[in-house]
Amino acid sequence: DTGVSQNPRHKITKRGQNVTFRCDPISEHNRLYWYRQTLGQGPEFLTYFQNEAQLEKSRLLSDRFSAERPKGSFSTLEIQRTEQGDSAMYLCASSSPPPATSGQETQYFGPGTRLLVL
Amino acid sequence: KNQVEQSPQSLIILEGKNCTLQCNYTVSPFSNLRWYKQDTGRGPVSLTIMTFSENTKSNGRYTATLDADTKQSSLHITASQLSDSASYICVVRLPNDYKLSFGAGTTVTVRA
In angstroms, how far apart are the furthest CA atoms of chain A? Predict the structure, then answer.
């Protein structure tokens, strides 16, 4: 399978614990995105990497959240001191720069990690 | 206020019937407008993509339309199948911006 993969698929944790999620993008993609999706809503942008550089962080990403992409390949999203409001699906997407002919970039999404904070 | 609004929030249809989903957006102009299909517990998958100047795009039994004057898009599903049960999300991309504006989605349930 050469698509975007995410691990774990599900995570249940107690409030106050730290959790870390991993995303493996499509191998030739240099762009990587993290989103958060709550029930009945569309995904919300969290952060964006181009290669190993984190170029933007949403204000939704409080200081308890940190994302890394140390070698420009896989990425991790860590949530410290989890709160019940962090319960959501965390989606990762990757893309490559759009072709010169169409100028349209396509983001390919992983299956997500569903987090439940008790 | 969200830049992308979808209706209805959910709908139930019988297998073999057609349905149309609506998307109203305030972003203008935009780079492209996509419809994504998201199965329960999975990530979204792109169905159709239209640029600002296009007004229709088909992908099998899925047909998307775009009216830039009224800032509306629709997704028509023809001859629905049980596997069409999913959430359908309208997504607008701003010009010269990698960020996407997502609608909340319409949940479609197809019953035998």
Answer: 49
